[in-house]
Amino acid sequence: MNSEVLVGTVRFPTPLLLASGFITETPEFFLRAQPLGCAGIVTRSLKEHVPPERSRIPAPRYAVHAQKSMLNCEWGNELPWRTWLEHGTGEVQAVGAPIIISLSGRDPEGCARLMQAFDEIGVDAFEVNVSCSHSGALHGNLNVDLDHLRTLMGVIRPATRTPLWIKLSYSTHVVAMGHLAEELGADALVCTNSIGPGMLIDTGTTRPQVGIQGGGGGLTGEAIFPIALWCVHQLANAVRIPIVGTGGIATGDHVIQMLMAGASAVELYTAPALLGPRVFRTIMRQLGDFMRDHPEYRSIAALTGRTAPHTTEHSFSSPVPRVIEEKCTGCTLCVESCAFGAIDMIARSSDRALAVINDACISCNACVGACPPRWGAIVAEFGET
Length: 385
Ligand SMILES: Cc1cc2nc3c(=O)[nH]c(=O)nc-3n(C[C@H](O)[C@H](O)[C@H](O)COP(=O)(O)O)c2cc1C
Hints:
Layout: E1 5-7, E2 10-12, E3 16-18, H1 28-33, E4 40-42, E5 62-65, E6 69-72, H2 82-94, E7 99-104, H3 108-121, E8 125-129, H4 133-139, H5 146-156, E9 164-168, H6 174-183, E10 188-191, E11 195-198, E12 201-202, E13 207-208, E14 217-221, H7 225-238, E15 243-246, H8 252-261, E16 265-268, H9 270-275, H10 278-293, E17 317-323, H11 333-337, E18 343-347, E19 353-357, H12 366-370, E20 378-384
The structure holds ligand 1.
């Protein structure tokens, strides 16, 4: 499988990168993930000075949520940024992997000074974070602040010739922010960061499940995948610079969807954080299976942007459910889920029964969702309705 991708001038042997966060505070996790298919690392977002009141991260820091998702209330590096300059970068470069230094975009001058320091040792790209959702709620929401982005780009673009990626998150301003970043010299966009803030409460103690003042945390993981995908697709339609898709990716199918939506590469955080580095091996195997089944795509890079032609008009073709007889146990969950009485049961001589989908079906596919995944007895197939 030809899995090499380019993000502008930066070349990666696979499309999978490890996104910025606690697990990229040091290179260790990445060094375990790299042999399994993770092509590059984005460091924890580094700040020149961590204000004393932000030197400790409130706890609990994380709350695991349904569907391999979580809330977090982290807000940046705990180890001094020099740790990456003096040790971490060299350890990543020693295994021949690209390294992207993530920097907080809140302090433009501090950000520019860190760029100059890292440029002395040479790194592959800078990813500047203007999109942390829970920090935004406490300290000002940079993710929608066009004026701040203009000021930031005015300071950091002249400070470095290294590829400059700007990391955005979902908002109604995402396209305007992407446009402005491109116009002011960004080489790529990364989207999304955590989305939110959101909230979870421990009903036993009545306390919020993350410890930050206000009780809100950034939502990440599979729960945000559709929103992240939408943002990537919107940006891909709006800008010419490459996009790195991030948010909720946990399977090969998610990666393929991100590429088809317009991403040139992807970053993962929550899935490897919850499942461990082995998720990269699983995803690479799933990508290999897809490429083998679809020889029309000669490379992974050829998947980028495939969906755009299908979104210019409404579509009227809808997946129609079909029951796989051998798998159906006759549990009737699908019958209960159907709001239209579109599923009939046919008694069998055995104790099983088969669901039959009749003319009342409007292809809502509630029955597909109702059928337990371990049986997978109803599939949705495309056909004209
Ligand atoms: C615990 C945690 C810490 C994070 N820290 C950072 C950070 O320092 N800088 C940053 O740009 N993004 C940070 N993120 C966001 C991730 O890099 C990523 O954009 C987001 O989690 C969406 O991807 P995912 O759904 O695969 O996790 C953090 C996410 C989590 C869960």
